[in-house]
Amino acid sequence: MSPALDSILSSKENDSIKQLRYTQLFESYKRQNNYTQLGADAHELAKWHYKKKSKENTIYYTQLAIDAKKKVIPFDKESLKNSYINLGYFYYKYENYKDAIEAFKKAVPFKKKSLNVRAYNYLANCYHKFQDPYNSVENRLKVFQYLDPAKDQQKIINNHINVAFSYRNIGQVETGKKVIRHLLLADSIVKNMDKPSVEDEYIITSNLAVQHHDNGHIEYTKNISKENLKKAIFYYNKALLLAKKIKNKKYECSTYYNLGLTYIYLDTDIAKSYFDKALSLVNHKPTLLKSIYFGYGKNAYKEKQYDQAIKYYERSIAGFFNIVNPTIDWQTNEEQLAKVDQKLFILEILKIKINTYLDKGIAANDQKSFLLALKTLEIADKLIEIMLTSEASYKTKLKWRDLASEIYIIGLEACYQGNLLDKAFYLMEKNKALLLMQDLNRTKKELPEKVLEKELAFKNSISSLETKKQGLSDQKQDSLSILVFDKKEELKRFHDSISEFHPEYFLSKEIPKVLSLSQIKPKKDEVIIQYTMAERIGYTTPYGYGMVISDKGTKIFKLKKIKELIEDIKTLRRLLNQPFKTSEDITTYKQTSNNIYKTLFPKEIGASLQGKKVTIIPDHMLGMIPFEALITDIDKSTYLIEESEINYAFSLTFQEKNKSIKRAANQDFLGIAPVNFDNELTPLKNSTKEIAYANDLYDGSLLIDQEATKENFVKRIKDYKILHLATHADASDSITPWIAFRNSKLTDLELNSLQSQAELVVLSACNTSLGKISRGEGILSLARGFFKSGANTVIPSLWSTNDKATANITSDFYKNLSEGQTKSAALRTAKLNYLNNNTDAEASPHYWASLVLIGDSGTLLPQTNNLLYLWIGLGLVFLILIVYLFKTQKKKSIL
C-alpha cells in the first residue's frame, strides 16, 4: 500500500470523503500510466473494503487491481495471480462458488508453494459446495505435491482427511478402499508426532467408523455385513471416548447419531436410544437436528411404523428450509429447492420417503399411499432437474442420474400397484431421456467444429505474438508478454471446459420435455413395448417393468423372476457369440430364449404381437439381446421374427426429437471397407461385396482399402444419406470404444464430435451396439455415438459378425429397401430369406440376428428411383392430357 492510500484510509474523514480521495488518487495513477501502483493500491483497498464488509467495493477493487496488473511493464505474473487468488477467496466467502472456481483456476499454479496449497484447497471446497466429489478429490490430491513431509505434517494430515472425505462422497466400493487408505496414512503420521492431537485422532477414528458403516450398509453391498457394522461400532465407541476426553459436545452428538444409524440394522431399540442421546445434545450442534429426524425415520421404517417414519422424514426435509414444525400439507417449491444446500441428502430422504409410502400402500392395500408416493416423487423430480443443470462435473451427474434411475423405478412400482398409466409412461421415458436428450439439445454455437476452430485460433494467436517478440526491446517484449499471458489463460479455461471424459460441449443444460402417453398414437398394425430396469436398488436385484401400447389400449406389467432373467440373458449372449455346434447347444438355446420370451412377453401380450410391427424400447441388460431371435414356441422352433416385424428405439421422446432434425445430404451412399488394416486386425475379404452391391442401387461413393482412411470418412460424413461401414469395431473396449479405418481408429469421443446428415447408418462391424453398461448412463455404444452425430436410423451389430453372412443379409436388405420396403421390413425380409435358405449350423442366430434396427423405420428410396418415379408420373399426366385433348377434339368433330 502506498503512503498516499494509507494516509487516506487512516484519516478520520467519513467514508464518502475517503472514497472521493482514493478515486482521485487512482485516476492520477492512470494518467501517469502508473499501473504498478494502481494494481498494488487497488489490491490493498479491496482487502480494506472486505474488512468493512462492503461486498460490492471488495469485488470492484480486486477486479480493478487485476486489470491494472495486466498492464504493468515489466509484467509480473505472480502479482497478478495473487489478486486472482484474493478474488477467488472473496467470491468463496460471498458464496458465489462458480465465480470463485474461475478465479482460483486463473491463479494456479504459483511459484510459491503455500499459495498453491491455499488455492487448490479452496477449489476443492467450492466443488464440495456443489456436491461434486470428483472435482473435489482431484484438487485435494494436487495439494500433496506442494507440502513438505518434514515441515507440513499437520497440513498433510488434514489433507489426507479431506481427501478421504471427498472419496467417501463418491460412494463406490473402490473409492471406499481409498477412504480407508488415506485415513490410515493420516493416523500413522499422528501417532508418530511428539504430541499427537486428540482432535485429529477423533476425526480419523470417526471417519474410519463411517466408512466401515458404509461398507456394511445395504447401499454398498448385496447384503448387510454385520462384520463391517461391528467394526464401525468399535471405531464409534473409540471416537466417543476421544470426544469426551476433549469435552467436545458437538463430537459427542455426532457420534451418538452415527451409532444410531449403525444399530438400525442390528437392534432398533438400541438405535433409538442413541438417537435420543444425540437429540439431548443437539443444542451444541443444531445443524444435526434434521439428520437426527432422518435417523428416527429410518428406524421407524425398519420397524414398519410407516406413518411415524413419514412424519420424521417430513420434519427432516423441513429442517433444510428452516421450518421447525411443518404443517401436514407443507411442501417445498422449486425456488426453495434451487437455493438449499445438501441437495443430494434431501434427494436420498425423498427416495426413502417414496419407498415408505410404497410399502405402506402394499401392506395396507391403500391407493392413497401410492398417490402420495408419486406426489413426493414430483418434488424429487424437480430436484433432479435442478441438480442436472448445475455446474457439477459429468461424472458427478452420472452418479445423480443413477440415483434418479432408482427413484423413478421405485415410482414405477407405485404406478404398477395403482395402475397409473400416464405417470408410469412419464417415468419410463424420463429415465431414458435424461441419458440421451441432453446430448441432442446442444446449441449451434456449441458444435464441435466451432470448438476446434476456436482452439486453432487461440494457438495461432499465441504463436503469432511469440514470433513478434523476437528482436524487440525488453520493454516491448514485456508488453506482448501480457497479451500472450491473457491468450494462454483464455486457452487454459477453454481446455478446462472440454477436458472431461465427456466434453461439456456435448451437454445441454436444457432438461428434455418428455412426451405424454396421450401423444403416442400407434397404428392398427403397430405395438410399442417399453421396458425399464434399474441398475440397482440398494445393490439388490431391481424390479423390471414393461408397458405395452397399441390401438387397443395400454397396459403396464411387472417382470417376474428378474434374477433368472439376468442369468438367462448372460447364457443367451454366450450362445449367440458362436454358431451352434451340438444338439445340446440348440436345446439350451431354445430353452433359454423361450424363458426370456415368456418373461418379457406375458401370455396375453405375446399373443397380440403376431403379424404386427413391434417397436421395442429396451433398458439395461435387455439391450444386449436381439428380441427377434427369441424362441416363441419350443416345439415348433419358431423365432419371434417369423411372427412379427421388430425394430428398436432408445426412447419415444428421443426418437420424436431426432426425427425433427432437418437432414439435407445431397448424395445417397457412402460405403467404407478398409479390407486390410495397418494394425494387426484381421482382413475382411467379403466387406467390399456388401458395399459394392448397395452402391449399384444407391448412387454414391466407395472408400475401399487405401482410401478407407479416418480422414476421408470425417471429410465426407456430412454429404451422404446412407453411411455403411464394413469394418472392425469394438464398443466394449475398456479404454474407449472405436471403429477401425485403414490407417487408424475413430474413437467414440471423436465420433461424438462429428456431424452427419445420415438417414441411415449401417455398422456391419463387430460389436457396435453392445458396450459397457455404465451406471447412470446405460449401455455405451457406437450406435448412440452416431445418433449424437445426427443419424436418423442406425443398424449396428450386437456381436462379432461373420462377414460373408453379413454381406448376404445387407445386400438383400438394400435390394428390399430400394424396392420401397420400410427399413425395418427390409431388414426382416433379408433375415428371413437367410434363415429360409440356410440349414443346420449356418441357420444359427449367430449368423443372421446380430444386426438390429434402431430409430426411424420409414422408407428410403434411391434418388435415382425418385427421379424415375417422377418421370413416370409426369409421363402418365402427359398421356392423360393427350387422351383428354384427343377425345375433346373428336367430340367437336362429331358435332
UniProtKB/TrEMBL annotation:
PROSITE patterns: TPR (PS50005), TPR_REGION (PS50293). The chain crosses the membrane at residues 867-886. This is CHAT domain-containing protein. Signal peptide: none annotated. Pfam families: CHAT, TPR_8. It comes from Aquimarina rubra. Residues 592-856 form the CHAT domain. TPR repeats lie at residues 81-114. InterPro entries: CHAT_dom (IPR024983), TPR-like_helical_dom_sf (IPR011990), TPR_rpt (IPR019734). It comes from the Bacteria. Keywords: Membrane, TPR repeat, Transmembrane, Transmembrane helix.
